[in-house]
Amino acid sequence: MTIQNKHSEILDTFVDILYPVIILFGIYIIFRGNDLPGGGFQGGAVLAAIFMIRYLVDSETTINTRVLKTLEKLFFILLLVLASFAITVPMTGCTMITKQLYLIIMNIFIGIKVCCGISIIFFKFALIESR
Amino acid sequence: MMIEVIFILMVAFAFASIQAKNLKTAVIYLGLYSMISSFAYLLLSAPDVAIAEAVIGCTLASIIYLVALQKYKVFNICYINREFNVSNDRVVAAKKSNLIHLVEEYCSTKDLDPYITYLAGDLEEHLKSFKHDLIIYHEGKKIYFYGRKRNYHITNICKYITRRKYIDKEKLDFKMMIH
After folding, report:
1. A118 with B47: Cβ contact below 8 A
2. Domain ranges, residue B25
3. Which of B34, B43, B63, B117 is the best residue to mutate to test the A interface, defined by the most A CB atoms within 10 Å of its own CB?
């Protein structure tokens, strides 16, 4: 059973304006996470808010959680590979820039993984549990 | 000075969320508590934790609680009456007894959303596949309520109906069965 939702024009328009702001903010938090407050987890959670807002505006929207699940698994494996690579290879000869680049890539992976995970939790909760 | 004010506000909102009469208001108070605690983290120079708290505690947890409350609100009622032989909505609406009005009254006091299905079939068949939260069986002067044991609304509904003196007035045979 879906939640009864009257389609509101005001909410729709407002959320259309809000989408790019949320996406930009999430990406900003992820990219500047290595030297400013923020990081992969926080940015990913902000990005996951997009799916939630979409559900709140229009409860009829269904999303294919299988794609999100495979994406999450893929990025988890990539994270493990990258982390083990960084541990085994000595980083003494690395410059500051490569270290920063490594941190940014790690943050991006964590961000995508957290975004997928939180949206899967939310959609499982909102859509599948109710049937 | 600022941090003390924030601590006091945190305690105040935590108490407000416990003491709230409505579950929805309690959830909103909890979100406010989360927001203020995120300010506290910011003032204690932990901006990372503050962002995480604002995102998780204030948004995600509140939304999940609200969705859960929305789900919890739906109350499926099945009303079976042998006299409903005609599959016409007007006939059903005309015969809709005072009992249903009482049940709907109870639901509105408890913030529930009643979904009532009117049926004219056999009781045994519906009891076998127990899909509804509450099955009301009405035949002449007999009224039987069938509900699950873990659903505490059933006993409350029965108490509400007996308190309203509807049963005594109509001299009905009223029973509650736990399935």
Report:
1. no
2. 2-71
3. B63
